Amino acid sequence: MQVWKDYQVQNKDRFLEELLELLRIPSVSADSRFNPDVKNCAEAVKLRLQEAGAEKVEVCPTAGHPIVYGEKIIDPKLPTVLVYGHYDVQPADPLELWDSGPFEPVIKDEKIYARGSADDKGQFYMHVKAFETMSKTNTLPCNIKFMIEGEEEVGSANLGIFIKENKERLKADVVLISDTAMISLENPSLDTGLRGLSYMEVAVTGPNRDLHSGVYGGAVANPATILCKMIASMHDENNHITIPGFYDKVQDLSQAERDALNAAPFDEAEYKADLGVDELWGEKGYSTIERTGIRPTLEVNGIWGGYTGEGSKTVLPSKAFAKISMRLVPNQDWVEISQLFQAHFEKIAPKSVKVKVTTHHGGSPYVTPTDHIAFKAANEAIQATFGKAPIPMRGGGSIPIVALFEKELGLKTILMGFGLDSDNLHSPNEKYGLANFYKGIETIPYFHKYFAELSK
Ligand code: BES
Ligand code: MN
Ligand code: MN
């Protein structure tokens, strides 16, 4: 569509300037010191939605961070797309590993470097600019609703309540999200699912106080050593997870489905070089694509205890801790998996220590129905602007609210992400390609066009 192209070419620089302005707001949801910034960010999103042509735009308060809602209903008889995204970001630390300030965006090698550039400000903002393109050129093919939240990176607990309380307002035909990755701009892909998540924390307590490691060491169990052994025992020699019942509900894919996934381009040498590792690791019998897409995993996110300050201190710590998460696949249930983890962790603990297990949060896995007209619309949109059909892929990450969209609103979700796995999400030097940003803005209007046409 030439009018879209012309509008986007004319406004290209402003689109980017506005994104950079959003990226300057440190909307870190996990850290309450940033609460005023999170609020400011919600207000900025509200303003941008209004300028783009949305109506009934509102910053909706919650028990936590606010949700920004806006809509443009051109005709109630036409289909409605609910666009979801998140304006909150992960903490930026460790700060010393950034080459430039996480909230002082810079453009280098055609990429925007800043926390949130890819996850998810740069991606949800493509939808705001795609909507602006359609609304300012009077070419909106269907109705659109926006729900941009501020707690995705901390589990979306309040969004779950919001959608239960706003079913009428959120009525739509499909949910559209750009918060995942593609293989590359040369090899566009479309995610057909997300993994679920179960996030736990464990505490192991030995003696009732820190002890002199010379006086007591050798006679009393060291909780740090015990915790390491317990964690190590959770993978066997084939890197299978040893928690009893963990795999019971895992849905195995047919050989044809596995072959289709493995047909995606993957360069192992490049992958290893990018990560600086000499060898890959993982569950025996599965490829890297499968290990990060269709298989469940268990990871230690952090482990601590005892003395970790400057210099040395000879101490046998009283306590040791770890944050452990598990990525889940269909049909694993995150509550059940959390319980299995807890029971197993308590069972394998030796009598020399006491353990405490708590659940942080979780979410269910999701699979996109590839026969849905919205999936076809996404396919055709990518075909239209990339000149190539997208490769279907499973996303390894989690967006827990997606399963709730289905459960509470009866809505399927299309995951049309434009990021790259190498964008350093949640890491120092997060980045987002300028080409990815503009390609997304170009592609999204076609989704709406084809979805409206296929809905007829
Ligand atoms: N955008 C990511 C999820 C993602 C990234 C999906 C890459 C697929 C590919 C999202 O913001 C995220 O980081 N989610 C968290 C879960 C949340 C409960 C903290 C995750 O996956 O760790
Ligand atoms: Mn995200
Ligand atoms: Mn994230």
Folded structure, characterized:
The strands form seven sheets. Strands 1-2-6-3-7-19 form a six-stranded mixed β-sheet, with helices on both faces. It is built from twelve helices and 21 strands. The mean pLDDT is 97. A hairpin with a 6-residue loop joins β1 and β2. It folds into two domains: 283 residues, Aminopeptidase (3-Layer(aba) Sandwich), CATH 3.40.630; 123 residues, Alpha-Beta Plaits (2-Layer Sandwich), CATH 3.30.70.360. It is of the alpha/beta class. The chain is globular. α4 packs parallel to α11. The chain binds ligand BES and manganese (II) ion (2 copies). The site of one manganese (II) ion has 5 residues, from loops.
What is the average of the pLDDT values?
A: 97
Summarize the biggest pleated sheet: 6 strands, mixed
Radius of gyration over all CA atoms, rounded: 23 Å
Helix-and-strand structural type: alpha/beta
Number of domains: 2
- Output the CATH class name of the largest domain: Alpha Beta
Count the DSSP helices: 12
Q: What fold name goes in the CATH topology slot of the largest domain?
A: Aminopeptidase
Domain Peptidase M20 dimerisation: 193-351
Keywords: Hydrolase, Metal-binding, Protease
GO molecular function, one term: metal ion binding
Pfam family, one: M20_dimer
